[in-house]
């Protein structure tokens, strides 16, 4: 009886239906993305400058009469990574909570191991994709914003796959 109820709940919540699950993941990812964007851009603008004045966000800031502090390229790249770390820690906490509550079913691992795996895999993904972003900005001259959004989309797909297959039950 309990198994039948659990299966029904899985169908109702969409945790067992791949297409609905991915849609819920995208919605929760949108929330996570907004947390990440706010944390990153507030840091990049007000705390540790890591934007150029011709960056799309820099142009928007300038349109309001506010200013972007110019810093040497090496400082910009260092600050970019630090700002990404702060945004990652903030948004990854939101990601774990929303993924565990609304997207995936737990039970593959105990809660502590599940959280550790989630953060470990997210951390690896973060390191790889931050390196890619840094290369796009430093080596290929991409704007910080274009690199940020491009890499976020790639990371979202990679993270969904890892979380579904390695962290959560499904």
Strands, helices and their partners?
Blueprint (H helix, E strand, L loop, with lengths): L1 H12 L4 H30 L8 H8 L9 H31 L7 H28 L5 H24 L3
In a nutshell, what does this entry contain?
By secondary structure, the protein is mostly helical.
Keywords:
single chain, 170 residues, mainly alpha, elongated, disordered N terminus
Care to describe what's here?
The chain is mostly helical and 170 residues long. The protein has one domain (2-167). It is built from six helices and no strands. α2 runs antiparallel to α4 (73-103), α4 runs antiparallel to α5 (111-138) and α5 (111-138) packs antiparallel against α6 (144-167). The protein is elongated. The chain starts with a helix and ends with a helix. 25% of the residues are buried. Residues 1-12 have low confidence and may be disordered.
